[in-house]
Amino acid sequence: MGSTERSEQPVITKGIDKFFLNFYDILKFVLRFFKEMFTPPYEGREFVRQCYYIGNKSLLLITLTGFITGLVFTKQSRPSLAEFGATSWLPSLISIAVIRALAPLVTALICAGKVGSSIGAELASMKVTEQIDAMEVSAINPFKYLVVTRVMACMLCVPLLMAYTGLVAMTGSYLDIHLNEQTSLAIFVQNAFEKISFLDFFSSFIKTLFYGFTIGIVSCYQGYHATQGTQGVGKAANVSVVISMFLIFIEEIIIVQVINMLR
Amino acid sequence: MKPFTPEIHWDETVISIRDLYKSFGQNHVLRGVNLDLHRGENIVVLGRSGTGKSVLIKIISALLYPDSGTVNVLGLEVETLKHDELRDLRLKIGFCFQNGALYDSMTVGENLAFPLRRNMPHMSKKERDERIATVLEAVGLSQTIKQMPAELSGGQRKRIGIGRTLILRPEIMLYDEPPAGLDPITCTDINNLINEVQKRFKTSSIIITHDLACAKATGDKIAVMKEGRFIKEGNFEEVFSDNDELIREFYDYNFIQ
Ligand SMILES: Nc1ncnc2c1ncn2[C@@H]1O[C@H](COP(=O)(O)OP(=O)(O)OP(=O)(O)O)[C@@H](O)[C@H]1O
Ligand SMILES: [Mg+2]
């Protein structure tokens, strides 16, 4: 009887209702995060543990990807610059590309894939096996213990990893330039930093802070609201990655616009 | 049959539920539940799958909120409690989940220590270890302290789950289907454990089950739920002398098997 009454509602308005209900839920979730982030007690140990996991999970992949990005980007850019006899501009071209765009994006996408999916799956499996309820009934605040620590760890680690990605990518680039143009390290560094301003570093840092927040909050939300059953776990992991990546691209566009207005 | 329990205080109710209604959308789950749990008493709630037994105890521990009706636990209206008051009340209610709900990332010992560390931060390590040892001894699993939950059997997980709720010395225990998924002998062990907990830790309990052997062994009183309300209450004989179709079916199914 219940199901027939429900299905009388037209599909479109049902979709819209659901969207706004979700939107309201998400907003509540985000506000709760900011509220609980600033109220003691703080879960220092769990925060440190999460930071360690995030670094541990993504470091290898980031090293590899960062290095190859720098190396390949240098190789691909060389012919165009060589046409104008301007290969000496390579270091500054690469550093602009890496620091302004590549390092933040590469880091964010890798973290969305590795960290986002694992947070989504972990919280979802805790949810469906009632571990989150179990914390709640033993007077432990699961939101603070699970969500706040993970989101904050993402907000700290993604910027740090971005700096690391930048360093590794520049190393890859330097190796290639050193082998081909016999540029010394001192000259490479000097050229690389010529065209880079404080604003570039700052904007990349802000970007990655947003990306980290996005990855953390999206995957925690998905995990925390997983529906019953084991397939909910896979779904939460999957959706966490897709939505995080989608939001990261949108944020990228918006932040770049804002920064360009400041320039 | 459960022997007579002398320690029940009939003049003191620890949980009192009046006219409780709860729906999920068009799914009207609870439709006017009334229940009194006295201090020291074990009430067994019997009912078929999906009648809202788990929802009932989730409302008692404020994991869900009712649409209407009142739930009074230890003299407090659960719905009106503020954050800190609810926290204090929850320390006095132990909730045993159907599959134990042990934290997979922690060993058995850490599972037991976790609620203590959080809620009694000033307790010394020695005192904490003693409490953990007492509880593990009570559930008969002292040797598992270093194991991970994944290495335990279903029955062991359930016992540790019961232990983890006991560790905070609750006055009220809520058991969600303790015998579900266990062989009859392990069931008997769990039933004995429930009775021992009642005696040793002086708890009052609500035990949810559809297993009549468990109901018979652990219940001072049996309450049968059908379509969102209790249709019959009393001790085992009283309830099963009734001729209601559901009660007969339950009885036949359990004892013909
Ligand atoms: N959080 C929830 N959201 C929506 N519906 C729910 C929720 N929790 C329970 N229900 C619904 O309430 C009804 C009763 O569920 P409940 O878990 O209380 O049954 P039960 O009596 O414990 O059954 P079982 O013996 O199988 O555990 C079910 O139809 C279920 O779909
Ligand atoms: Mg149930």
TrEMBL record, chain A:
Keyword Membrane appears in the UniProt entry: yes
Swiss-Prot/TrEMBL keywords: Membrane, Transmembrane, Transmembrane helix
InterPro entries (UniProt xref): Permease_MalE (IPR030802)
Keyword Membrane: yes
Gene Ontology CC annotation, any one: ATP-binding cassette (ABC) transporter complex
GO MF term set: phospholipid transporter activity
Pfam families: MlaE
Membrane spanning stretches: 54-73, 93-112, 151-175, 201-224, 236-259
Domain of life of the native organism: Bacteria
The protein's name in its UniProt record: Phospholipid/cholesterol/gamma-HCH transport system permease protein
Species per Swiss-Prot/TrEMBL record: Chitinophaga rupis
